[in-house]
Specification:
By secondary structure, the protein is an alpha+beta fold. The chain has four domains: 95 residues, Arc Repressor Mutant, subunit A (Orthogonal Bundle); 48 residues, no CATH class; 90 residues, Roll (SH3 type barrels); 81 residues, Alpha-Beta Plaits, CATH 3.30.70. The protein has a five-stranded antiparallel beta sheet. A hairpin with a 2-residue loop joins strand 2 and strand 3. The radius of gyration is 30 Å and the shape is extended. 19% of the residues are buried.
Length: 361
């Protein structure tokens, strides 16, 4: 018969006069992780665990386990002890065994909470709502004190807010596209191109719903263009799910298709060579910008970036972002585009400011 709330041996209680110099004080994060390991071990064990077994699991001393068990009892966890043959074992009451998330460790739950912050850019979509529902269920399974421990464990993690679109107006459209992909049904849509106001009606077999730099895109086969195209969701004016089925062509690898792009849009294969000044070299070498990239250091401290990309529209914007620290060497067509853009910027910034324009502040 279990005996609830067994008294921890007095000689092992916190503050009982034990010399703390014999055992280093653990950082708060380590203590939380260790106590979570103990809880997980008790949940997973049908017959309970002895203190030495818990010490081995938590990778600490027997004395530390006793202190942790006392802390868990104080926090309200129904930790009990009973005799199993010639030894004393610790366990959780059966009711508690079914109200705690057995498969998840504290680091895993912390990672989930961090992922929840990353998913903030999806606010206003069915995906964000589903994640919120998941976290609500996790919270409902945790005792209040353990929930506070979990939230404290994530205090050292932060996500810097990046520019994001408001997705709520496109919520129904996102759901429709997702359903069309799952059901393999074509879409009828009216699309407005980026340049100009011209609208075209398309019938599209949607292969993927893409999320890139805060925006949603539909990748699929366009009947009008007779080719695979990428459509920005916020430029789709109307959308209708049809009953016409489709099949993804055998041998088509969407992942390979996307790898060749320098973003999401596609174009003819183009070999690019870009020289980056010494002041930008570190930033270029420390990241993978494209799967095909090759970065070669030069004697003057600059680096040569080479890659084969599908079209130059997106890499053009990337080059412009680096200003004078980037110089396109090849292809000539991209170099000319960058030059014309630079000339237009010089024209804009080179003329005198109109009199009377506010200077801000």
């Amino acid at each position: 018969m279990p005996h609830p709330q067994k008294e921890i041996p007095t000689s092992l209680k916190a503050g009982s006069g034990i010399s703390r110099s014999k055992e280093p004080r653990m950082a708060r994060g380590d203590q939380l992780a260790r106590q979570w390991k103990i809880i997980q071990a008790l949940i997973a064990s049908r017959r309970g665990r002895s203190v030495p077994e818990l010490a081995e699991t938590a990778e600490c001393t027997v004395r530390t386990v006793y202190r942790d068990l006392e802390a868990l009892q104080t926090a309200g966890f129904p930790v009990t002890t009973e005799r199993d043959g010639h030894r004393m074992v610790w366990s959780l009451l059966d009711a508690a065994r079914h109200t705690l998330p057995i498969p998840l460790s504290l680091p895993e739950l912390t990672a989930l909470y961090f992922g929840r912050r990353l998913a903030g850019v999806l606010k206003g979509t069915v995906f964000h709502d589903a994640l919120e529902s998941l976290f609500a269920k996790i919270r409902s399974l945790l005792p209040a004190d353990m929930l506070r421990l979990l939230e404290r464990s994530g205090e050292g993690l932060a996500v810097a807010a990046a520019p994001a679109k408001i997705h709520a107006p496109y919520r129904a459209m996102i759901d429709q596209v997702h359903q069309a992909i799952l059901q393999r049904r074509r879409l009828d849509l009216v699309y407005r191109a980026m340049q100009g106001r011209a609208k075209t009606r398309r019938r599209v077999a949607p292969y993927r719903l893409l999320f890139f730099e805060g925006s949603f895109y539909v990748l699929g086969y366009c009947g009008l263009r007779q080719d695979i195209r990428v459509f920005a969701l916020d430029r789709i004016r109307t959308l209708e799910l049809t009953d016409e089925p489709f099949e993804v062509p055998e041998g088509l690898s969407i992942d390979d298709f996307l790898k060749s792009s320098f973003g999401v849009f596609h174009g003819p294969p183009t070999r690019v060579k870009i020289r980056f000044a010494k002041s930008a070299a570190g930033y270029i070498t420390e990241r993978i910008w494209h799967p095909s990239q090759r970065v070669t250091p030069r004697a003057d401290g600059s680096v040569l970036f080479e890659a084969e990309v599908a079209g130059t529209a997106e890499i053009k914007h990337w080059v412009l972002k680096w200003g004078a620290r980037a110089e396109v060497l090849e292809p000539r067509s991209l170099r000319d585009e960058i030059r014309r853009e630079a000339e237009a910027m010089l024209k804009t910034y080179g003329r005198p400011r109109p009199a009377g324009r506010a200077s801000g502040g």
